[in-house]
Amino acid sequence: MCLGIPAQLVEIVDAEAKTAKAEIGGVRRIVSCALLEGDARVGDWVLVHVGFALDRINEEQAAETLQLLSDMGEAYERELEEIRKTAEGAA
Amino acid sequence: MRYIDEYRSGGLARALASELAETMPQDRALALMEVCGGHTHAIYKHGIDELLPPGLELVHGPGCPVCVIPVGRVDDAISLALEPNVVFTTFGDMMRVPGSKGSLLDARSRGADVRMVYSPLDALELASANPEREVIFFAIGFETTAPSTAVTLLRAQALGIENFSVFCNHVTIGPPLKAILDAPELRLDGLIAPGHVSAVIGSRPYDFIASDYGRPVVVAGFEPLDILQSVLMLVRQLAAGRAEVENQYTRLVRRDGNPRALEAIEQTMELRDSFEWRGLGSIPSSGLRLREELADWDAERRYEVPGVSVPDHKACQCGQVLRGLVKPWECKVFGTACTPESPIGTCMVSSEGACAAYYHYGRNRPKRGTVPA
What we know:
heterodimer; A: alpha+beta; SH3 type barrels; 2 domains; about 35% helix; B: alpha/beta; five-stranded parallel β-sheet; 16 helices
């Protein structure tokens, strides 16, 4: 129950009650947006937990973390490639 | 799916694992606690433990909301469910948690109207649709879930829905961590802090772990790469002799958390003097109850509950599992008398419980490279 799932808001249901429809892994469900800063907008990525959008997922930060990880992957793949070459040369 | 698939790349995981092996100090073993049951689940689901270098051990922590509810509170819940005219609503996992005389599911077979809900708002909806019944919601969970209960209460108050009440068992993450760090029998080198609790409270409340206990903390997301990267951040700190609070989960967690969520909790709930935890005993200022202003929606004020402290089943070692002292496979009843189908303890019931995670992913023996705590 404590798991949160990334979801995208696809429809504002009731602006006063702060409810919206979110698509969660192919399923649509009404969630409360009462915990979000400002008005919920269609297209917002949020983390859904027990029927509440707990907060928006920061797209920029998501991309940044991923880039950090990818850079590391490339650096390592390059390094591994070099090690492999050296190993072949040595043999 | 966006924000999931990208964080599951196998190539990147191997790159992180190799960086981890290089950073790992050669002269000592390290024990890191993953506080959150969601992390425990992800670690075994994705085999992250298999990618760790020898001498690096992950210790499971108390962050499973179902697991930490003691037997006495389950008995209280069952007593409420058996009140006349009550519809007792609960998250699915709590249905099967054994009390001293059976579970909520058993109470249902004895005639209690116990229903599973996905959200506290579903319980409120049920109350609104059935004004002749009394709907009680069994509220459990850390700061992740407390705001949802809080907003639901504020909505019930605003709409004047009077046949709805909450049996409040919300808990806070700081005090049990302090209790674990104060316990002499377990030595931890660092903590992987729960990502979704931290979305609400922020990363600041963990500062005492770095400043008072000299242990590094990294707030982590839930995808395999998040967890591996967080482990690497902790090992880097330890290798460099640093103890700081760092945030890996920047796409969701801010230093000061979610102010609207904290405000909703503040408006509706206050700290109890103490709250009993399974395995950890009574911890001062660790549980939340409803404020006096919301007495009309407080099931504990509206009904009599036994409120008795009941010891765990004798064979069950859930308490030690929750404190990181015993691995699930070391418990005598693990996988024999205690299984997900017929659980004795909470750690086998909840999908976030360490025993259920081990059982589900076929981990029933010591792992390569594990070291005694």
